[in-house]
Amino acid sequence: MKIVLVDDNYAIRQLIKSILGDLDNSIEIFSSSDGIEGLGLVYTINPDLIILDTTLPKYSGKEVYEFLLENNGYANQIIIIS
User: Which residues, listed in sequence order, are joined to residue 6 by a DSSP beta bridge?
Assistant: First the structure.
């Protein structure tokens, strides 16, 4: 399973990576600290799951979510955290 994790807080990214890695070591996690880079990862990786923070630099989590809904069919693959 491939996951794109987008959160501007380094500690939270590391915590989520650790928790998910402990659940299943075959999970691949690709992370970003801003919305623009996060969108790039989504298009490059084509993940099974996207975890988005609501407050991000450059594009907010809401803007990334809305863009993905309008341009792809990722609605069922997105988890939003705040």
Answer: 32, 52
pLDDT (tens digit, 9 = 90+) per residue, 67-81?
A: 888 887 776 777 888
CATH number at residue 15: 3.40.50.2300
Please choose, from the candidates 47, 73, 72, 19, the residue with its C-alpha nearest in 3D space to the C-alpha of residue 6: 47
pTM, 2 dp: 0.89
* Spatial contact of 39 and 78, defined as CB atoms under 8 Å apart: no
Measured from the Cβ of residue 72, the count of other Cβ atoms closer than 10 Å reads 12
**Backbone angles phi and psi of 65, in degrees to 5:** -60, -50
Residue 29, strand partner residues = 3
- The H or E element that residue 49 is part of is strand 49-53
Q: Which domain holds residue 33?
A: 2-81
Three-state secondary-structure class, residue 31? strand
